[in-house]
Amino acid sequence: MGNFKFSIIIPVYNTEKYLAECVDSVLNQTYKNFEVILVDDGSTDNSPKLCDEYTQKDSRIKVIHKKNGGLSSARNSGMEIMTGDYFIFLDSDDYWNSNSFLNNLVSDCLFEKNTDVIIFGYAQYFEDTGLKIDYIDFSKKFFGKNKEEQIKSLIENDMYQSSSCNKCVKSMLYYENDLKFKEGIFSEDIDWSARLLLYADSFDVMESTVYIYRQNSQSITHNKRKKHIVDLKNNIKTIVELSYNIKGEPYYDYYMNYCAYQYITFLNCVCCVEDNEDISKEKEEMKEYAWLLKYHINRKTRLVYLFNKFLGYNVMLSLLKLYLKLS
After folding, report:
1. Is the model's pTM score more than 0.90?
2. Which of 47, 161, 238, 314 could form a disulfide with 43 if both were Cys (CB 3.0 to 4.6 A apart)?
3. Contact, 86 vs 168, CB < 8 A?
4. Low-confidence ranges of the chain (pLDDT < 70)
5. Could you write out the three-class secondary structure of the chain?
């Protein structure tokens, strides 16, 4: 089996309560050829000390202490010093639930394949209730033989989300392309994952839920601020502009469905904005992007497309808001 080296990049900010569970879920892997890069992003709790203590326990652990710059800045700092063949992000309040995760990556997806991007399942873990919910259904078989077929399978089966934490990425894609995160914005994963679709030549999936994403019971419907909406709007415009580079490519329509899905994310977030935030300009501006919904390849985008087609933009938003309240 190939001796691939993994770089596990863990941004750390005031997560002393969860850091040990996170880091230990990597150190306990049965596959041992990896490095852990802990990026202390200006933490003010005991996290910096815990990071330094880990370097004394395991020589594969590196620590960066930096001024607080946000999640994107921390991830970028980690990528700058990584030495692995592949890299994976893991947030410091989350963890992996399988000690054989890396071993399975190599045996199932990398050995004899040398895949560019491998996608794996993740679950939302609500700590206050103990509830775990699988977020992506990977029970369907994945048979794509080339990039077009692979992206088609991912999009049709809702297996390509914007999260950067459920992807194992070949490091060469970072070195050969502009694969840094935009800093100082929310929803930075949207643009980053869109560029992965363009740059990578091959994709694969692991049919298992590995990543445990810690949340609280209010996290899905909590109020958004205007900056969330503005950043989402700008991200959608960016990924639509990227599509101009791939017009004529056989996977173009599937990429546009990814854009449409992010447009739905925008609509959902609009329904969760705090009452004192004026986003009327943003709502009206993005009304002009409703054409994205014509790329309704999977079930979710098709449903919103039909609401918009027969009921109109404003009624569709009202129904989405009601649905979010009821759910």
Report:
1. yes
2. 47
3. yes
4. 1-2, 130-131, 135-143, 216-223, 327
5. CCCCCEEEEEEECCCCCCHHHHHHHHHCCCCCCEEEEEEEECCCCCHHHHHHHHHHHCCCEEEEEECCCCHHHHHHHHHHHCCCCEEEECCCCCEECCCCHHHHHHHHHHCCCCCCEEEEEEEEEECCCCEEEECCCCCCCCCCCCHHHHHHHHHHCCCCCCCCCCEEEEHHHHHHCCCCCCCCCCCHHHHHHHHHHHHCCCEEEEEEEEEEEEECCCCCCCCECHHHHHHHHHHHHHHHHHHHHHCCCCCHHHHHHHHHHHHHHHHHHHCCECCCCCCHHHHHHHHCCHHHHHCCCCHHHHHHHHHHHHHCHHHHHHHHHHHHHHC
Between CA 141 and CA 157 the distance in angstroms is 10
Written as six digits, the tokens of 232 are 């989402």
